[in-house]
Structure formats: C-alpha cells, structure tokens
Amino acid sequence: MRRIGVIGAGQMGSGIAHVCAVAGLDVRMVDLAEDVLSRAVALVERNLGRQVARGKLADADMQAALGRITTGTDYAALGDCDLVIEAATENEEVKREIFKQLVPHLSAEALVATNTSSISITRLAAATDRPGRFVGMHFMNPVPVMQLVELIRGIQTEQATFEAVKELAERLGKTVSVAEDFPAFIVNRILLPMINEAVYTLYEGVGSVESIDTAMKLGANHPMGPLELADFIGLDTCLAIMHVLYDGLADSKYRPCPLLVKYVEAGWLGRKTKRGFYDYGGDTPVPTR
Ligand code: NAI
Q1: Distance of CA 85 to the CA centre of its chain
Q2: N or C, where is the chain less crowded by C-beta within 10 Å?
Q3: Residue 45 Cα, ligand 1 centroid: separation in angstroms?
C-alpha cells in the first residue's frame, strides 16, 4: 500500500492521517469544507510537534510527514488510492451517501475500510460495489497514542482484504484485535454501556460530575473518568453508538440516558464544542453539574 484516502477530517480522520503519514504513506484527506481541512492539518502539525518535542520524532521526519498529506473536498482526489478509510460522522445515512459518491472514482482493486464505532460492517459493505473488499478498521482516540486497532470482517469480507488491513495496522505500529460483526463490536459494546450508566448516575443525582469521575479513576483505576471520557469521544458519537446497541440488540439495558440525549440536542457535544459534562472554555476543564 502506498496511498491512503481518509474521508472525514475530524478528531479520528486527522489522527489516522497523522499515523499513516508518519509511516511513509501518501495521504489524501477529504471533508466537506476547506476550513475543517485546514483545522485538521493544523491539529496534525501540533501533534507531530509534540512528538518532536518529546524526542520521539525527528524534525525532518515531521516535515516529510506533513508533506505527504494533501487535502480536498472532492472524492475524485481519492481515485488512485489503494485504500480509503471512511472516518466521517457516526451516522449510517451519511456513510451510505459517502460510499455512493466515492465508489465511481475508485480503481477496481481499491479497498474500502470504515472507522465506524458501532454500525454493521456487513450492511455498510452491501452499500458499496465491493463488499468483498470492504472491512471495519476501528482506530482508537487519540489515534497517534492508542495502541489498538479493532478489525471487523463483514460476512462478505474476503480474507485478502482482511490480511491487507491487518498488515497496514501493524505497519502503523498498532496491535490488532479481531471482533465479529455485532453492534459496537468489542470495545464499545463494553465501554459505552458503562459511560451511559455514568450519565444515568449523574441524571439520578447519585453523584456530581466530579464525584463520578473521581470514583471511577481512584476506585476502579481508570485513567480517565467516564464523563471526561464521554466528552473526549464526543457526546453525539456516544449517543449514536447507544442507539446502535439499543436498536441492534433490542434490550432495554442499552436505552440511551435522557440526559445524554438532552446534551446532544443542546449542541453540548463535549470537548469539540467546548462544552459537555465539563466546560472547556478556560485553562482547565470545569465540571458543569
Ligand atoms: P468528528 O465529529 O470529530 O468528525 C467527523 C467529520 O466527518 C467532520 O469533520 C465532518 O465534517 C465530516 N463529515 C461529515 N459528513 C461528511 C461527508 N459527507 N464527507 C466528508 N466528511 C464528512 O467525529 P470523530 O470523532 O472523528 O468520529 C468519526 C468516526 O470515527 C465515527 O464513525 C466515529 O464513530 C468513529 N470513531 C470515533 C472515536 C472517538 O473517540 N471519537 C473513536 C473511534 C472511532
């Protein structure tokens, strides 16, 4: 593999572009608007700069990595990619529409992966012209730091496709864990109900934001509290994953907490909008409840 396309230049897309460029791959990143793309490149530059400051990357390698990333708003730019990784908003309709617009530009051999946190790989694969060459490649946030890539085969995914993305994940320095195609796979099947329960705990007044996060950090040895982590993931993404679990597994234990729904309706999406369970307007995050 030499050239990777990335669709969606949010927190995940920019992280995927970062690690691919550092590994020597050419990266074409596509999003809806130029300002999103320039923010993504600025974020990659800042994060690469941190790696240089910590002595983990040479300055020349940072410049070379940045030089390998190009951006645009037209899917035609992805026509010569060996693999396109879709990392757009966690919404099945959005992803289906992206694949519809993308596939006419791709070569017959190109592979397509989705970074979805929860949506059926089998169903998304069936929305393309190449279900055998389609796979789930679920990176963790923040991509340059987190070690895991969860790989998910759809029922139609060919072994060669799976092997190719496994090899790529390893080339990026990641460790692979394989999950079957069930709602939210492994990591989020376990993590999101815990986060949702933390929001219920807040909603029912069992504890404040600070008490809940402190309790889980010091009582369960989690590096981040569940509400802080929810803000980090994005509350819209958390809610979308809970809907997939609730709809896909038909069990009331996955019912999204009404408070999570309200926050998303208010546009309080966590760090990315500077407000979620914490307020990120100042130097340090301040709990809001
Ligand atoms: P985000 O909200 O930061 O970024 C999503 C990006 O997709 C935005 O820049 C948006 O403009 C773009 N987009 C929307 N529609 C588009 C279209 N039609 N064409 C091109 N770009 C489009 O979201 P984030 O957190 O980066 O999540 C992206 C994907 O990665 C989702 O599927 C999510 O479930 C998954 N994911 C998220 C993780 C997290 O911790 N946030 C972790 C692992 C996977």
Answers
A1: 11
A2: C
A3: 19
**Residue 202, Cβ neighbours under 10 Å: how many?**
23
Rounded to two decimals, the pTM is 0.95
Query: Looking at residue 66, what is its pLDDT?
Result: 98
In angstroms, what is the span from residue 7 Cα to ligand 1's centroid?
A: 9
Q: Is 8 annotated as a binding residue?
A: yes
pLDDT in tens, 243-264: 999 999 999 999 999 999 999 9
The verdict on the CB of residue 32 being under 6 Å from ligand 1 is yes
| Residue 82 assigned as binding residue | no
Active site residue 107: no
pLDDT band at 267 (very low <50, low <70, confident <90, very high): very high
N-to-C CA span, the chain:
48
Say how far apart CA 75 and CA 116 lie, in whole Å.
19
Of ligand 1's listed atoms, the one at least distance from the Cα of 114 is 32
Six-digit token string for 98: 């992206």
**What is each CA distance from 48 to 22, 87, 221, 283, in whole angstroms?**
9, 20, 29, 22
Residues 61-82 pLDDT 10s: 999 999 999 999 999 999 999 9
Confidence label for 224 from pLDDT (cuts 50, 70 and 90):
very high
Q: Which two tokens stand for residue 176?
A: 């692979």
Alpha carbon separation from 271 to 9, 89, 285 (Å, rounded): 16, 16, 9
Burial class (CB in 10 A: 0-12, 13-18, 19+), 23: middle
- Asked if residue 84 has its Cβ within 6 Å of ligand 1, the reply is no
Q: pLDDT > 70: what percent of the chain?
A: 100
- For residue 33, which atom of ligand 1 is closest to its CA? 11
- At 212, list the tokens: 């809940």
49 is in an annotated binding site: no
What pLDDT score does 83 carry? Answer: 98
Polymer length in residues for the chain: 289
